[in-house]
Amino acid sequence: MAHGQAGTGQSASAQAAPRRGRPGYDLESLLAVAVTVFNERGYDGTSMEDLARRLGISKSSIYYHVESKEELLALALDRALNGLFAVAGEVTASGGPAIQRLERLVRGSVGVLADRLPYVTLLLRARGNTRTERRALARRREFDQIVADLVAEAEQDGEIRPDVDPAVTARLLFGLVNSLVEWYRPGRRAASASELADAVCAVAFDGLRIRRVSRAESPRTGPPATDSARASAF
Amino acid sequence: MAHGQAGTGQSASAQAAPRRGRPGYDLESLLAVAVTVFNERGYDGTSMEDLARRLGISKSSIYYHVESKEELLALALDRALNGLFAVAGEVTASGGPAIQRLERLVRGSVGVLADRLPYVTLLLRARGNTRTERRALARRREFDQIVADLVAEAEQDGEIRPDVDPAVTARLLFGLVNSLVEWYRPGRRAASASELADAVCAVAFDGLRIRRVSRAESPRTGPPATDSARASAF
User: Fold this and answer.
1) ipTM of the complex
2) Which of A173, A191, A233, B141 could form a disulfide with A195 if both were Cys (CB 3.0 to 4.6 A apart)?
């Protein structure tokens, strides 16, 4: 009886999911498993049979939710990209000096990465083998351009070291952020996303930011620099 | 005739290769092509048929050089790992403060990465699906431990910021180095390995190194700090 009740409960909550519902998996939980398998075996190396086996459901149950394997890929990559572009939009709207916007972009991106780790991992491994991957890579380049523009602007402001090419600086900065997917695993004993962002900003920005020994804050800055990298610099 | 002569010349040089020689490909050039294909398709997704087709030779011609696909993988991964461990060995033997040894290790690793880019790329993508990959991952962990120990030693020396966990610092530092495989492509207009190492060290170490305003060099240091990150810090 207890088992039956649990089953009923699960089925009821699945049916309450918006638009597409089916006992066992809603689109969200289906996608989460699919992304895990894509990351383990590679997207190209994963068949719908593989997914059905892992999910413990039939292929037709998967087709109830999506039209193709590539639709799952598209949904997964968008999950990562939409997160990153949401941060970029907020940062652009926030105003302030370019160096502060750049730091907010880094912090926000670390947050997206920690929160949507499997999705971002899949994005960073996309090589352009399908139309969906190529579209995702185009959006990644668009995001990278936002970063590169901010770095160039901050350098023009005299806030970022001029001895490293801004394009290289931008790549190194997000190379550092993206490298987190290789080792960061959220969990009980792991650093929080916020602590992780502190560490990344501390390491990255104390390298990037030109140090002004015994000089007042730039008058242009408005409020004092409260972003964590500066606060935790020493 | 010209074609024939070229063929003879190639074959002669191939036969001059040590131990294993065969007209068309020596082990070295065979390995270079295999690594390219492994990186494109993934090791698991590459068959000996795929390799033979790309090389334009028969499978038995490949077996003339190696016993299995996994032997090619092992040779390729060792090419990357032996380079990194050679640098680690030189650095350990060089002595000096930990912060300088750490910087030399970073510079040397960037050099290995630039020089053996496809091999290091393959190493960084290894996920432990075969015994050979697991052996390589164990050697990578050994290398990472060398980095972590150096970071901890430099922090004990008071040379590295204490507000970031040394283990996290070590991961961020080599995350930065390893991220180069995602975008660095040696070529006419590309930065040299040395310029790349300058940029990495400038960004990384100006974040890591505790700044001592108007203080003499540590007496322990011996020779003045000539490593590039310090020289190009501002």
Assistant:
1) 0.75
2) A191
